[in-house]
Design a protein that fits this description.
alpha+beta; single chain; 782 residues; 4-stranded mixed beta sheet; 5-stranded antiparallel beta sheet; 24 strands; globular
Length: 782
Amino acid sequence: MRWSLVAVVVGSGSWAVSLAESPSTASTRSGCAACHEGIEAIRDYESKMMQQIIGVGRGLGDPDGCVVCHGGDAKATEKAKAHTPGQFYPDPGSPWVNERTCGDCHGDHVGTQWNSLMMTESGKIQGVAWSFGSLEGYNHGWGNYDAKNPANPAARQGTEAYRAYMERLKQLEPGAYPDEQKTVPAAPVDVSKLKDHPEQAAFTYIRTECERCHLGVKGRGKRGDYRGMGCSACHIPYSNEGFYEGKGKNIPRDERGHMLVHSMQATREAKVTVHDKTYSGIPVKTCTTCHDRGKRIGVSFQGLMESAFTSPYREGGQGQVDLHTKHYLALHQDIHGQKGMVCHDCHTSICVHGDGFLCGTNLAQVQIECSDCHGTPWAYPWELPLGAMDEFGESVEGQPARGVGDSVLAREKQGTVFPARDGYLLTARGNPMPEVVRDGSTVVVHSAGGKDLVLKPLKLMVESSAIGEAGRVAMEQVGLHVRKMECYSCHAKWAPQCYGCHVKVDYSGDRKAFDWVAAGHMHQKSAHRADRGEAAYQTFVAGQVEEQRSYMRWEDPALAVNGEGRISPAAPGCQPSVTIIGAGGETILLNHIFRTKPNSEGAGQEGQLAIDFSPGQPHTMDRAARSCESCHLSAKAMGYGIGGGEINRAWDKPTMVELMTPGGEVLAKAARVQIEPIEGLSADWSRFVTEDGKQLMTVGHHWSRSRPMNNEERNNMDRQRLCLACHQEIPTQSLAVSVLHHIAAASGQIPRSAEAHHSLVHKTLLFAAWGQVGMGFGGPGV
């Protein structure tokens, strides 16, 4: 059965009451509500959406409108007949059925889903393939399903300026913007062939571990990971525990895997009530059902960093409860989150749903930059050209100002549409942001949670002297910081850094794991399109994957050049040391690091260790920037490794701990190696470039422009050893230092802090400079 909501004219009829309050007689209620008495309406009854649903439902003999989304037979009095197999949709948001449910009203959103990154997950696939020997190079030709771009470039959703911009990016980085993707290869069936082709174990890893988050499946049933499919993955609330806590009578409350309440969460006007508490917007918790691995941007935004420990204890002496099968430390929460913002207050509809065309990685699909709202110290957001801070190596200086938009995209008019005031701000790629408007010299962000946040752009803060000394020096006096670096290079408070990913793929015995890609393809079959999940599927493949780390850090991430050509924070990406156990228990590979294919990845990448340091946005922003010293005096920041890479011993040599002679000879014959070697890893995981510029591993595998900072960039950044310029001599033997200390002692201004020391040096230098001018030492032009 098909229907169209657009053909129905709906008024504000007398049916606008909750299901729990409606009469429960058969003459006025549908069969659905007779069983599901008390269940929440999917949207509040005052909303236009709910009025449309009810209007269509009345025309179908269902005054509550349940069949509009769920299908089935509302007139049936038995569950088996009401839930007609193939015609009843337990999860109407599932991508396998949402064309005939959500898509009746939201066709633009449903139409882009199959080419969106949340469905293809091609970036994760390419990342794992890279670490098993750069199997795709920089290309992103594998996804979870076969997919193609529309033949007409004008079919890309967005403004004309946006479409032109994306065509230019596609020409610059064709590997990140493929025209077509094929389903990722199957996991190995004949395990005996792994001896000759151990890289094929990558597909066991991808299918059984990495792809459980894509929107074509409901995903694993673990604490923190409960969600729906397709549209429901984001727009239906699930708690960490997966219990239903609404008012419906027929939904079990002691069975995990259910939505929290039967309500839809979206933009500001979509109100959801849980235990008499009402909210709007999509909570960050919903996003972290998937965004807790990889770059970990969701949990990082919440201020959560993985921990190897379960402390502190809870009641009964047990350790911390698992979340996403992990344990966490509580660190600084992103400043946007502290102000009550949620993910989709920054990330636009196209950032999340896609524009209908394929892309390979987050940076390819996300269209926003910090400067889109904050501007720069010398330009308001609307004074910047399109592409500012998103240049991909091309200069945009001299290009016309982007201005503002006077309307939002058609697809976004179905959500909350705020008054334009002085215009909607545009993203770096040319689309209007429906919740962000210009108001004179300020910016108003209408958050989905209900707050109207007034933001002062950087230029206004400079003009009103609202920026402190450190900020003025960093952004104005050292203008290259803004012109060459991402804002979050300084303003990221921390970044999750998991060094060394020790991956074991064990095919011995009867070990099996669930193939999430195959499960998604099971849904493609007509008999399974309406399935609520994958619990009954037998899509198992040989082998089980286990992951461990060498160590974890979070403070002061390293810096590298990202795909846009800007200096960015960088953290370990995929750094696998791979161990493969064969069907008979034999070791096929032991702690093996693959190498990239020669001549396939571009300059500087030939035959490199296929462990990666990945530039990225940590999502841990703070108003206060990291200190100058944390970059300019840090070997780690420059890519030389923690402590210059000299703290850890070389990983490619075994570590013995036994009774030994003073010369290191082991005495016991039964001695065993304590720490096994990792062949080829002659430096620490944290060291990706040497002081003379030799690259030790790959740095960014999605984009041809990503790399370590080059020699010139690192030399410009390096301010190590400058203290020795003054302090290489004992103060009494150094005239400059003696004068400085004499002035300090005579004036009683003995510096007690770094700030006081800086102030005294500053005053002394000024005094010396004026002395030179007064004595004629300045030379011409002084």
